[in-house]
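Continuing the batch. This is chain 6 of the set; chains 1 through 5 are on the previous pages. Same settings as before, nothing changed between runs. Recording input and output for traceability.
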Amino acid sequence: MKTLIITLIITLTLFLGLQLFSQVQQINKLTLSGNLGSKSNLVIEDKIEKLTISSNLSLTSNSYSFEPTKLVNENFLTAKSNLQQEKKKTKSVGLGILLSAILPGAGEFYGEDYLKAGIFIGVELLAWGTYIYFETKGDNKTEEYQSFADANWDVRQYAQWLVDQNFEGAGGVNPNEPNLEILRQQINECESQNFSHTLPELRSQQYYELIGKYQNFVAGWKDARSGNTWLITNSNYFTYQTAMFKSYAVDRQDANDLYDYAKIGPITAILNHILSAADAAWTISTYNKNIKVETGFRMGNFRSPYTYKIEQMPTFNVSVSF
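Output for chain 6:
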């Protein structure tokens, strides 16, 4: 923790008595008001830049002004700028957190940390870009393997295999049943007596999963038999896999992997929202701490650079902590 003291001393030599005075800043003009004598000296000190600027003023009325650009030392503008910077208003930490919770980086932008704002926004765009990219790839792969299954896996062939291999309950299965849903129910009755898994509703998500996963469904693939000869039988179906079954299983796994990659996007986005909201609180707290202003007014004794006399002058102090 350190404290930087910025002191602007505006002095007026009071010949007819000290009264309340006010300072008004305009674009390039500082106006001083008060009951003053005919000659005065203005001393401006900027302790940030270690500069002291003096100017003789001839005052002939009750309202006086001068142009900073007319001073010999143009660094008066630096002192003026320092004062203006300290007049920045504090920002709401709660608002910053809310902004970043909605859009990562917005709270940092509000707190005027533009670099971190850009980083959080960039991460957010990258996260959702990753999700869209892999989700689209997964959808395309899913359509590909489902089309392959529709063309190469046959429920009637599977039903015929159950009958030909004389599985228990196969007598109730009619491979030529016109209604495929009724045929599936007949198959399920047989399957429940022989296998751990039964055929799901045709063309459902689970249907596409199981026909490429469990051994009894290998018989439904077109390359499970050669002509009228079954390559898979009731004695080898535990281990036998056809080329189509293997290829389909790989394609389906590829699609699942792409969907898993896509999940990284939303997870990253959620973490990005949380981290950005937390960082926004820190950023704005730091911002507010940097511009914490302590002001004070006192009368001080100063030696005139021209007369070398000690005179009382009003002093305005500004202290900034960060």
